[in-house]
């Protein structure tokens, strides 16, 4: 407290503090208050644009340990969007723009105004149904063709530049069935991921690994993607695949041996070890060791994911399974094991749709799943040698959303296709939510422009994307809601 010219005590205001101290105060203020404070005076406006303030806004929303925060790209998937580069490489305006766009999308999805938050439209060159993947972060979407090539679209580009660009060249003549899976490498300073391709023709089944890296300009900004072929693997046995997944040094493919045999067989391969031992980089690897799971899994396979610690997660219509990969015997040829491979964890829970895994600190993994007419949460704890699972009922799904429709689930929202166009968004809480006991499930309707909308009847052509969720529509159009994954 100071005295005025008459000797009377006066109080010091915020503006009397040093700039460094004001910045430290702004770092502890909610983002809405930061925007309000900057309107009060020119000095506060300039200080509110300090880089450390917006870095802190991101880190306040991740919940990771300090060691993980140090990399500044491992952002909790339920909250902040994934960054394409180390946080230190962003300018303050870039970080503020990303953060406010994400917050605007979050507000928009909670507002029942029937309008999508941010819609993009792309005309596809090839008017046919094509496999697609949206890379986590919501900017890049990959498309596979019947010739085994892969193209991509930048959803952040200007409308005139939002066209398909070649990533992986043609691998065969037209008529192939191509499947894709990706595994993001968080150890790299820019967006980097391994792309696994399964290319199926009448004569052969081929597996490929490509390394995809973000291309940057002289200012370090991402401008495109480039791919390098790492290796090709002949599939053993030579059967059409039901699916493929990749994670760390492993990939897994699964299939039926015979069309009339509903049992699914899984082959897990350490592709990095096979590549190192045979030294066939960019060549074909036909002999490699494998681990086989054939546990009489006759149920529908919902999804397969790799988890940390060499764990394989398999979701079926009747149970959820976790295997310790290293405990599965190694085989040099494909042979169905004489006995069952015991899972590390088996959860007898019916499931028709399951989310991606959501990784949390302290060895916790969460999934959202649809079990009959209930949205449930599965919390898996890996803190002990034998993991444990808890199932929570999050909310019931209105039956009107489930009739003939396949939802896509995020951590706290599910998206349901509407027959006449647009989507319905169902929000649900997890235990620990401040109003979990009294939370009322809300259904919000969002409409799209319908000039090319054809509902669900002819599943050909382009796609609709809600957050990071995609649906086929009839015309060769791509409609994208560019919002971070939830």
Describe the protein's architecture and organization:
This protein has 486 residues and is mostly beta strands. The protein has eight helices and 33 strands. The strands form eight sheets. It has a five-stranded mixed sheet. It has a five-stranded antiparallel sheet with strand order 12-13-14-16-20. Strands 22, 23, 24, 25 and 26 form a five-stranded antiparallel sheet that branches. Residues 11-57 form the F-box domain. InterPro entries: F-box-like_dom_sf, F-box_dom.
Low-pLDDT residue intervals, each spanning 5 or more residues: 63-78, 450-486
The strand order across the widest sheet is 8-9-10-11-15
- Please tell me the overall pLDDT: 79
Largest sheet: 5 strands, mixed
InterPro entries: F-box-like_dom_sf (IPR036047), F-box_dom (IPR001810)
Pfam families: F-box-like (PF12937)
Organism: Gymnopilus junonius
Protein name: F-box domain-containing protein
Write the SSE topology.
Elements: E1 2-3, E2 9-10, H1 19-27, H2 31-37, H3 42-47, H4 51-59, H5 66-71, H6 92-110, E3 119-123, E4 132-134, E5 140-144, E6 150-154, E7 165-168, E8 177-184, E9 192-200, E10 205-216, E11 222-234, E12 241-247, E13 250-256, E14 264-270, H7 271-278, E15 284-285, E16 290-297, E17 301-307, E18 311-316, E19 320-324, E20 330-331, E21 345-347, E22 353-354, E23 358-360, E24 364-371, E25 374-381, E26 388-396, H8 399-402, E27 408-409, E28 413-417, E29 423-427, E30 443-446, E31 463-466, E32 469-472, E33 477-481
Parallel strand pairs: 11-15, 31-33
Antiparallel strand pairs: 1-2, 3-33, 4-5, 5-6, 6-7, 8-9, 9-10, 10-11, 12-13, 13-14, 14-16, 16-20, 17-18, 18-19, 19-21, 22-24, 23-24, 24-25, 25-26, 27-28, 28-29, 29-30, 31-32
Helix pairs in contact: 1-4, 4-6
